[in-house]
Design goal:
Blueprint: H1 2-10, H2 21-30, E1 35-39, H3 43-54, E2 63-68, H4 74-79, E3 84-87, H5 92-105, E4 117-127, E5 131-140, E6 144-148, E7 159-163, E8 172-182, E9 187-192, H6 196-208
Parallel strand pairs: 1-2, 2-3
Antiparallel strand pairs: 3-8, 4-5, 4-7, 5-6, 6-9, 7-8, 8-9
Amino acid sequence: MALVNRVCRELGVELTHCSTAQTALEKFGLQRFHGVIVDDQDAASAASLLTDIQATENGKKALIVALAKTDAALDAVFGAGTHLVIYKPLTHDRLRNGLRAIRILMGRRQQRVSARIKVDITASLTVNKTDNFPVKILDISEGGVAIALQRPLPNVKALKLSFALPGEQSRITTDAELVWKDVRGNVGVEFVNNDAAFNEVVSKWMKANPRGK
């Protein structure tokens, strides 16, 4: 919880912590919140809470963020009205990128820690070292990308992403880690790469193309 509090402060998001479901419902009965963050540690209780919140007048337009294990049943999670899932284990960058995405949906002014550039790149995503299929990269930063999928991901244990940056001939490849998924099925992945050459190529391209291509 301390990490969630810290990231929210960095993004300028005011967070109210509720230790029980009843407390959360009482607060939604008294005032309107832009969104709610729930943990799937007790999935049944979390889903029940979301249903109850969305039944309140103040909860109808709240954006829902779930903190979930990577093997969570996404149909059940999104069936409870979740707009964004941020996957565990939680890290500072993972939370920052995920909550920044929901912050945009809230209509707040975005304060980017690292620049993200809109692109339209056809890439190849390999899941669990065996399942390979094309995806589209929607935006890129030095730390990761947002991806539009043509079909749902299976249970993810390992990801590898291969793509060529616009205007570049050579493809670059990196291991990646699933960070978030939104209600439209788009996902965010974080580069897991200690390859200095890969990092240099991405950084150099971003500096030369601040508005994307």
